[in-house]
TrEMBL record:
GO terms for biological process: protein O-linked glycosylation via mannose. Keywords: Glycoprotein, Glycosyltransferase, Membrane, Signal, Transferase, Transmembrane, Transmembrane helix. Residues 1-35 form the signal peptide. This is Glycosyltransferase 61 catalytic domain-containing protein. It comes from the Eukaryota. Its main location: membrane. It is found in: Membrane. It is a single-pass membrane protein. It holds the Pfam family Glyco_transf_61. The keyword Cytoplasm does not apply.
């Protein structure tokens, strides 16, 4: 009998499974070196890979030559002004400690040197004064223009300081003149920061938030170049707002911000206090070597928007709109074909469901008046030309505010026309509408003029001009006289039959916020009494016919929507007209801002025929231009 002494026993299945489990646990729990980790993990891509070179003549003022990129490299260095207009500034390497911002420069001091802090003057050459950059973020009071008690809002040395490289070293022990400064000497906040210093006073208003604050921010940002390729900010900071005081009553502010910057972080006053406290934390093992305890926070790139800082500027005094000030900063020539607002508009429209690029109500190239007539689908016109009437609900307001095309509209086509039974009446009408088209046959393609006309009906959804009248008759103030409102609607309905446009009369508050954007986004002409609803002009397509018609109490005027339209349509893409009863006003012949008694009242007069004639002229403007 063979002995089993000294032989190795065969492991059982249970033992083999246990060994495999222990081996796997050992592999996953064992430490991995940094070099091994780099094989599995790659760094996040930069916000922007292509630098935008800013000529020295455009970078005004600047403390050194630099490349203006959407995100500045994280380097501990002195401060550089990339773009600046009063109240609107883009800087690289802005420092903050204990709530005080530090602009660090190697520029020469002014002559004679400053002996005490002066917010109206820079202590260094070629730098803007502190007052033109920041304010204390207090409410604005006084007459229209808000320049009352301006001295209370200007910055002091505890808010914004200009210091030399040597002074900064004495304060924090950091020598920015050195070639490579240790990043550990500062708290770095990577990415792009938008610092918006408004108080709650205007923020909770749709117009002031979107068409003034963000309108100006994007115009400043667009001056860097890049258009649709500009990355969103990493964070938006509101140091003077809490998180409960930035939304408006109609919920349009949050729709705007979530649409345009869905991944951007938002920080408010309590967050700001946290960051101030962070700058005061002092390491027990390593002193900074300066007179200040803790270490400063570094913003590699920051865009600052400050209402009070913009108000002394010339363009603000002219138009009483802070967003008018950054238009002194040039946008690179040819960028977005001059439509600098397009990146923002496109994002909001896409979120609302208008994700196509067709120009609703805009003329096609070389469109003639006859081609405009061919887009008509009203039953009377279809009957005269022996064309089938489209579905009755083809272009009602319910369709205009749908995010997608109803299947029956996308599949419906006009059949080949029946043989014509020509009458004297039809001959007369045809001579008016079909002269350029009739008696033309293209046998190679198997089509004739009326087939082309019928086929155009299927394109009518995106080309037929739409006139939207935003009525305020359900509001408690700033309304038309009832009889004038009724006559205006009647004149527009008459025009609808006469030239084949579509007229939509609606109260904005009865539409959802998405429906408002979709409706105005598909409108060729937007019409209404001066009021918040006209802010939606921001989402209109730009084109030869694109128009905003704003009704004022006679002798009253405000630049809110006039300036916004003119700033968006500087290349001729959006035209604004003001109405004083039966008088039409437009740039450059507009009056100064004025708010007479009755401006906010409910007895605003308007001549409906004057408005209808203006609408008719604007719809026909494309044909006049195209036919030269």
């Amino acid at each position: 009998m063979a002995s089993n002494i000294g032989s190795t026993p065969t492991p059982t299945l249970r033992e083999m499974v246990l060994v495999c489990v222990l081996l796997l646990l050992f592999m996953f729990m064992s430490p991995v070196s940094d070099s091994e980790l780099t094989h599995y993990s790659t760094s996040l891509p930069p916000l922007r890979t292509k630098a935008i070179h800013i000529p020295a003549s455009e970078s005004k003022p600047t403390s050194s030559n630099s490349e203006a990129t959407a995100e500045a490299p994280t380097v501990v260095r002195e401060t550089t002004f990339i773009k600046h207009a009063p109240g609107w500034t883009i800087l690289d390497s802005l420092y903050m400690h204990n709530g005080t911002f530090y602009v660090v420069t190697s520029n020469s001091p002014t002559e004679p040197p400053q002996t005490q802090y002066d917010p109206l003057k820079s202590p260094f050459q070629n730098l803007p004064p502190p007052r033109a950059i920041l304010s204390k973020g207090l409410d604005v009071f006084g007459a229209r223009g808000g320049m009352g008690e301006d001295w209370k809002r200007v910055p002091d040395e505890y808010l914004l300081r200009y210091v030399s490289v040597e002074e900064f070293r004495e304060l924090f022990g950091i020598d920015l003149a050195a070639e490579n400064v240790e990043k550990e000497r500062v708290h770095i906040v990577p990415g792009l920061t938008f610092l918006l210093t408004d108080s709650p006073q205007f923020i909770t208003h749709y117009y002031h938030f979107c068409a003034e604050l963000w309108f100006g921010i994007w115009r400043t940002y667009a001056s860097l170049g890049g258009g649709h390729n500009l990355p969103p900010p990493t964070r938006v900071f509101f140091p003077h707002l809490d998180s409960a005081h930035w939304r408006d009553y109609a919920n349009m502010n949050q729709l705007f911000l979530r649409s345009v910057f869905p991944s951007t972080q938002m920080f408010f006053s309590h967050d700001w206090h946290d960051w101030v406290s962070l700058s005061l934390v002092q390491s027990k093992s390593k002193r900074n070597g300066g007179s200040k305890k803790g270490k400063p926070i570094l913003f590699p790139r920051v865009l600052i928007a400050d209402r009070s800082a913009a108000m002394p500027a010339y363009n603000y005094q002219r138009f009483q709109r802070t967003a008018a000030v950054p238009f002194g900063l040039p946008v690179p020539q040819g960028e977005e074909h001059g439509d600098w607002w397009a990146p923002v508009r496109d994002m909001v429209r896409a979120f609302a469901g208008l994700d196509d690029h067709s120009g609703f109500g805009s003329p096609s190239k070389n469109e003639s008046p006859s081609q405009l007539q061919s887009q008509r689908t009203d039953p009377w016109y279809s009957l005269v030309h022996r064309l089938p009437t489209p579905p009755r609900d083809r272009l009602k307001v319910q369709d205009l505010i749908k995010p997608t095309i109803d299947p029956k509209f996308s599949t419906w086509t006009a059949p080949f026309p029946l043989p014509l039974d020509v009458s004297e009446e039809f001959e007369e009408l045809a001579s008016l509408f079909l002269t350029p088209l009739k008696h033309h046959h293209d046998f190679a393609q198997g089509t004739d003029a009326l087939t082309v006309l019928a086929a155009s009906l299927t394109r009518q959804r995106v080309t037929r001009p739409v006139v939207t009248y935003l009525s305020r008759q359900d509001w408690t103030r700033r309304k038309l006289r009832d009889e004038d409102h009724q006559r205006l609607v009647a004149e527009l309905r008459k025009l609808e039959q006469e030239i084949g446009i579509e007229v939509i009369v609606v109260s904005a508050e009865k539409l959802s916020r998405w429906e408002q954007i979709r409706l105005v986004g598909r409108s060729t002409i937007l019409l209404g009494v001066h009021g918040n609803g006209l802010t939606s002009e921001l989402w209109m397509n730009l084109g030869i016919r694109s128009t905003v018609i704003e009704i004022f109490y006679p002798e009253g005027w405000a630049h809110d929507y006039e300036y916004t339209a003119r700033a968006m349509g500087a290349g001729g893409g959006l035209k604004h007209f003001g109405i004083w009863n039966n008088q039409v006003l437009t740039a450059p012949n507009f009056p100064p801002p004025h708010y007479p008694e009755g401006f906010q009242g409910n007895q605003i007069p308007v001549d409906g025929k004057t408005v209808a004639d203006l609408v008719k002229n604007r719809i026909g403007a494309a044909g006049e231009i195209d036919e030269g």
